[in-house]
Structures are given as structure tokens and as C-alpha cells.
């Protein structure tokens, strides 16, 4: 275990991911963590992250010097580096020469564990105003830059080191190597955290939590719930029942992938509820986006509730109890909502909010410690098909919020066909991993004149909304090559009768959201 102490930068989660990429398990903890709490967790190392503030700013978070007397190896990055220097008796000053962005770094040439075998000149990513001007006693200065006379220091005997630059960002040429040198050479960590070890560990934890009780899990068709369910299935087999509510708002082939491919890959016991009619009825005449979302959410929870009750009753008939509900909560949700147990509640409320009091379950969250890329690796390890593991993010209300206007069965069929063509062509062009997602939106209440074959048509436009993003909070429209767009457009207008125009949305987020409703 490596603890990344978060000083409020956007970088702490990224550092934790990089540590995990080196096959060492790591978690983010707030900077308010005490020395006793650190010792209780017995980490192999600490990493002090960057932070937005100057160590001189009022209220700037400080590091208790006692941290460095615990014998736990520590690595300071950017703000963490300066805070470490200050705590140990070095000097941090406003030098007036801040550095931001790509910066040349020069090694001092002295023996260095951090930079072992790396080039004397290298490019690093900097972002600082203050600089360390004198290293604390016992440390060797191993690199410098124009604006940071002490850009790296290390005291390998005490297991302490730090760098002014950001090794975790890709713009730092040898960042991962520097981080791994700290982990393996300075801190003596070992690269044992692998995908199969994660599966093994989670399987054990789920077994310990669930015991002989029964578990229920709602499958959405998305990757998180699929991987969570597959893990729990691996752990407790037929004690798990999955519920898949087919609301008819999924994309082409997705329901089949859940009902057939997922079941074939996992052997999971699946209860499918065909609620397509019910959702269409609830959506009849509804055009307002919020009303649509609410209607879909309300129907979903009612149908799920009914199915869960049936699972409970069926178990009861065998003298068994259903006590647990599986949730695909991921690590970023846990960190962002503050870490502890309360965090899980916020997210789960969100997902199954609305279950009545007489139908409450304890949560099983086997992905709580994982980032999305790790969830995908675990999914592959568990033998899930690529189509599920690499599925794009897809909104809960599904195609319902991609039909602008009333949702009808005919319109869903049109959108499903157009969407399938766009997906096929983007996949064929090898763009799946570059594009975050590409909603296809049917402007069902707009018509335009066209000519198809030798006749005049009066059809509907679809909008392609390919975006690139890190986390869906912000996004930019993807520069999909013109020839790929041309193929999508030609195929949709040829193959989907009701559509006679294909348009491209070139709005970033903000100001536009990713979805149209
Ligand atoms: P927006 O449209 O807000 O979407 O930019 C951001 C991301 O969230 C997805 N999205 C949803 N996901 N339930 C979900 O589970 C929803 O109601 C929902 N609405 C939007 C959207 O696809 C994008 O990835």
C-alpha cells in the first residue's frame, strides 16, 4: 500500500493511478490524515501530492515533521516537495522565476536513485511559483532547472526524496521511471498488484462479506455493473441473481449482449424483465427533457423494485434471505465524495434511490477501490466480451434522451439503426479509444426536404455528437476525419429510410452538454 496524501491538487488521483500502473496498490488520503492514522495503515510509502497553494499562503496545508520520523519512505511532488523541504529545515522562497509547462531539467551528475540511468538533460512538466532554494540537511540535490535551483533531492538512507516537477503527467518524459525508481529503489516496494491479484482479493472480500446470504444486482448494460456482477458471481456463484430491466431504450444489440453473451461468459443467474411497453406508455406524449428523465427514472425503480421483490420471495421460499445489493461504485466517486463510508451512501442513493424502506439491502461494492481502466482489465480477466468491456459511457435514460421530441417505438428503431452505423464506422476506423462517446441524436420533430433515389423526401436529421473527454465534466468535439464522417453520412442516409440529413455537432462542453437533453 502506498498512500498519496492529497494537498488539494487535481493530480492526486493521477498519481495514485501511476503508482498502480507500476503494480503497487495505492490510495488517496486527505492531507488532514494524522501521523497515528498513517502508522495504523502501515503503508510501504507516502507520496505528498502537488497542491494549488504556496507554502507561504495563509492556511496553506503543512506537513507534520513527525511524518518523516515514522520511518515510512516519502516522496514529495511539487507542493508536497516544498512542504517536505520546509518541514525538514530547507528553504523555500519566492524566487520570482515561476515555471509553467514543459521545462528542461538538468541532472547534477551525482549518484541518484531517482534518476538512475536516465539522460542528463530531460524535459519535465513544471507548475510552480515558489522554489526550494536550499535542500534540508542530509539531502543530495540531484537535479535543477532554470527556475528551480533545487528541482530534486534525495536522502536514500532515510528513504526520503522529492521533485519539483510532476512525474505523473505524460509531458514529463521519464516521469514514470522516476516514480518507479522511488517506489522500488528508494522505498523497496514490490510490483505485486496485478489484475489477477485484484480479482483474487475481491473474490475473497465478497465471500467474507456475503457469507451464505443471497445477493441481487441490477445490470444496466454498462461496463461497471457488468464487471461488478461478474466478480460477485465468481465469488458466490448462484447466491447472486442479476436483474436486467429491458426498457427498450438501449442501443442495437445491447440487450442481447447482456442476455446472451454476458450470461454465457459468466454463467450468472439472470432475471430479464421485458418492460418495453411500460416505458413507451410512460413516455407517450412527453417531450420535455426533465419530465422524460423523471418518467424513465420512476419507471425504472418501480420495475426494479418489483423484480427484487420476486427475487426476495423466491429465496424466501427456499428459506434463504437476500441481504445484499451489488453496486458498481468506482474509486473516483469514493474519493470525490470524501473517502469514508458516507461516500458510498451518496452514490448508492443516487442509483437505487427510491427503493422503499421494507426493501433495503446492504451494499456490496467490489469496484470501490478501482479506476475505470482497472475495471476494464478486471472485466477482461473475468472473460467478459470486448463489446461489454469497452462499451462507451451511455446515459441511464438511454436513447430516450437522444430523441428530441416524443419517444415512440418507430423513432427508437430509426435511431437504433443510425446509431449502429455510426458505431460500426467509428470502430472500423479505429477511433473507439480516442473518442469518449458519440451520441447520435434524432431530431424527431424537425423535418427537411431531400432527394433520395428519384423522389423528393421529407425526412428527419440526425446529429453526430462525437466528443473527447477525460471525465465527462468537460469535453471537446472530436476531430473525426472527414472520410469517416462521409462514410457514416452516406450509409445512414442510404440505409435508414426516415433520415435524409446527417449533421455534426461542433460544440465543446461547456457551453453544450454532451447529451442533447
Ligand atoms: P452531459 O450531457 O451532462 O453528460 O454532458 C455527461 C456524461 O454523463 C452521461 N449522462 C448520464 N449518465 N445517467 C447516467 O448514468 C444520466 O441520466 C445521464 N445523463 C448524461 C452522458 O452520456 C455523458 O457521458
From TrEMBL:
Which pathway does it take part in?
Answer: Purine metabolism; GMP biosynthesis; GMP from XMP (L-Gln route): step 1/1
Free-text function comment from the UniProt entry: Catalyzes the synthesis of GMP from XMP.
Spell out the protein name for this chain.
GMP synthase [glutamine-hydrolyzing]
Recorded catalytic reaction(s): these are: XMP + L-glutamine + ATP + H2O = GMP + L-glutamate + AMP + diphosphate + 2 H(+)
Q: Which GO terms describe its molecular function?
A: ATP binding; GMP synthase activity
Under the heading Pfam families, the entry gives: GATase, GMP_synt_C, NAD_synthase
**Highest taxon listed in the record's lineage:** Bacteria
Output the Gene Ontology cellular-component terms.
Answer: cytosol
* NCBIfam families for this protein: guaA_Cterm, guaA_Nterm, PRK00074.1
Task: Name the gene that codes for it.
Answer: guaA
Domain GMPS ATP-PPase residue range list: 193-391
Q: Which UniProt keyword terms apply here? A: ATP-binding, Glutamine amidotransferase, GMP biosynthesis, Ligase, Nucleotide-binding, Purine biosynthesis
Residues bound to ATP are 220-226
What does the record give as the active site?
Answer: 78 (nucleophile), 166, 168
Q: What class of enzyme is it?
A: ligase
User: Which taxonomic lineage does the organism of this UniProt entry have?
Assistant: Bacteria, Bacillati, Actinomycetota, Actinomycetes, Motilibacterales
How is this protein organized at the quaternary level?
A: Homodimer.
Q: What is its EC number?
A: 6.3.5.2
Q: Write out the coiled-coil annotation as residue ranges.
A: none
Keyword Phosphoprotein among record annotations:
no
